[in-house]
Amino acid sequence: MAQSLPDDQASKLDSAIRDLIINYHELNATVIDELYEEPSALEFMQYVARNRPFVVRKGAEDWTAVQKWDSHYLLSVLGDSLVNVAITPFGNADAVLKEDDGSLSYVKPLERLEPFDKVIRYISEQESNQEKATPIKYAQTQNDNLRNEYSSLFEDVPSDIPFARIALRKNPEAVNFWLGNSLSTTSLHKDNYENIYVQVRGQKHFVIMPPVAAAAVNEQSISGTTYTSTNGDEEAELKVEDLKHTLDEPELIVPVPTWDPDFPDVRSTPYSELVKPLRVTLNEGDMMYLPAQWYHKVEQSCGDEGYCCAVNYWYDMEFGGSFWASNAFARDIARAVNN
């Protein structure tokens, strides 16, 4: 059995973690750099090396997608083709859920194939009639879907982001399409990708924190669950009460952040108050670089037609050098101290 550290060693470790977070924020801006033209490959690589985000305002305003992707155009291209849609009762796909007994689980959505025309109309109608409680649908498969199930739209966006491809010397691992309304949210998490995110319709509201926030986010290993339907008719339109979540089989234990910077007193750690989250809103045509390993949660606002859509490019992060190993060390120390 592991033994507790002596009080003086525990105090020194606590001070070191506090210094890490405080020093980071003293040395780095608490706002995101705003650019008004795309960076060169060299300028982009400097941001990657420093692991710092930026926004290019109107950086994608001339993309065909930004110019054309209204509902009429999307319906004319996709029609009734089948697409994968995530369905949840509360817009909480891939999220931490508090159970009735106070324990936590990590819940994944019910996924169904549905005609695109039905999905976009449902999303738009739900946005304009939120007082009626209905299941929330979100096209968010995150599996390179823009080059697969939405491939007919792929020609409307660049095949890659040139400054990223040149700087990173690789093509994107995935290009994803996102479509939902303001009821869908993305809970706090981080990815092993250099992420270029482009807003096409509506707005996205990001809360982001650097990897040194590991001690603040209260990462826990919790059981995975998945929403399923209790309605035996797979063709029927679901009701909220039809969706129940059950433990995954075989059992799946997922390490996830459980602290939310928008609810700072819930499941906080002694280090949560030291972190200074950055907040940024992306408007139509804006482009953001979100560095690998940055914690982020996302909410969205719809455009005039009642939906929000975006495209993102994931480039594999570099696992060589000290960045990955250092972050893994900080994360392990944070979990050991907080637990």
UniProtKB/TrEMBL annotation:
<dbReference type="InterPro" id="IPR041667">
    <property type="entry name" value="Cupin_8"/>
</dbReference>
<dbReference type="InterPro" id="IPR003347">
    <property type="entry name" value="JmjC_dom"/>
</dbReference>
<dbReference type="Pfam" id="PF13621">
    <property type="entry name" value="Cupin_8"/>
</dbReference>
<protein>
    <submittedName>
        <fullName>Clavaminate synthase-like protein</fullName>
    </submittedName>
</protein>
<feature type="domain" description="JmjC">
    <location>
        <begin position="146"/>
        <end position="330"/>
    </location>
</feature>
<dbReference type="InterPro" id="IPR014710">
    <property type="entry name" value="RmlC-like_jellyroll"/>
</dbReference>
